Amino acid sequence: MSVIAQNLIWGVRRRTIVNDVSLTVAEGETLGLIGPNGSGKSSLLRLLAGLKSPGSGRVEILGQDIARVSRRALARQVAFVQQNATTDTNMSVRDVVRLGRTPHRSPLTGWTMADEAAVSTALEQVDMAGLRGQAWQTLSGGERQRVHIARALAQSPRVMFLDEPTNHLDIHHQIEILRMVRRLDLTSIVALHDLNLAAMFCDRIVVLQGGRVVACGVPAEVLTRSLLRDVFRVEAEVTPGPYPGQPHIRFMAA
Questions:
Q1: Which residue, 97, 135, 159, 227, has most beta carbons within 10 Å?
Q2: How far is 145 from 123, CA to CA, in rounded Å?
Q3: Chain-centre distance of CA 154, in angstroms?
Q4: How far is it, in rounded angstroms, from Cα 77 to Cα 158?
Q5: What is the DSSP letter of 130?
Q6: Are 126 and 46 in contact (CB under 8 A)?
Q7: pLDDT tens digits, residue range 69-117?
Q8: C-alpha angle with apex 25: 23 to 30, nearest 5 degrees?
Q9: Which CATH fold topology does 1-77+157-223 show?
Q10: Helix (H) or strand (E) holding 15
Q11: Rounded CA gap, 1 and 32, in Å?
Q12: Among 39, 11, 30, 40, which residue's Cα sits nearest to residue 232?
């Protein structure tokens, strides 16, 4: 398994936000995290990536307890793509992606051919090589998100975490981004709001409610009419999609 979480508990003051969560993610799998607002998706993602420390429980990535691994060493294996990631300075696309090489370099080492190759490969993977010299501030929302995914890929990770990477993008760019993530030769864990996109692009789905896992499985098993009613408080018609195991959800008007 690429990622194993055991009995994770985390909270703020007296409020428990992630409550006894356990899960496993196989190598090369795309796992979706879904749930209502406040269900703990983003917090769980940060616990799994090592950006937060659990109150109790443990996370293993690639067979290592991440609590025993340095932040720098972990960043060579794991990349995190934030929701609506921004870059304040007006850097070029290439310079933004170059930042992903930081975990692999020390202050005394110069820029190497391996670094340049990693940046070039990352830009090609997200189809942004042709814009490598363009200023960040001139990019569209979808292009910016591609660049931040390229920056994550430049870390040469084996596991990538993405927190609502399609938020505020139009449907074309949402599908484009998730199709690209799906093609990558990585283990990916993605927090998503759109249930149909989760069904289209995730091998399995974990459903969170109140910080707990209430369902886990392939989309066709998890995204049922009763679960949508109980967890998301909506009435919906769930029908088979164009591909096996990939349901389509049609929400019903009140």
A1: 97
A2: 12
A3: 16
A4: 5
A5: G
A6: no
A7: 998 899 989 999 987 666 666 899 999 999 999 998 877 778 889 999 9
A8: 125
A9: Rossmann fold (3.40.50)
A10: strand 15-25
A11: 16
A12: 39
Stated length of the chain: 254
Rounded distance between C-alpha atoms, residue 140 and residue 186, angstroms: 26
C-alpha to C-alpha distances, 199 to 163, 240, 244, nearest whole angstrom:
17, 11, 11
Rg (CA), the chain: 19
The residue whose two tokens read 């096996």 is 244
> Which residues face 205 on adjacent strands?
32, 217
pLDDT at 157: 93
Q: Where are the domains of the chain?
A: 1-77+157-223, 89-156
Cβ 160 vs Cβ 81: under 8 Å: yes
Cα–Cα distance between 116 and 110 in angstroms, integer? Answer: 11
Structure tokens at 7: 């009995």
**Residue holding tokens 């990349």?**
79
Tokens representing 128 are: 């942004």
* C-alpha to C-alpha distance for 128 and 116, rounded to whole angstroms: 15
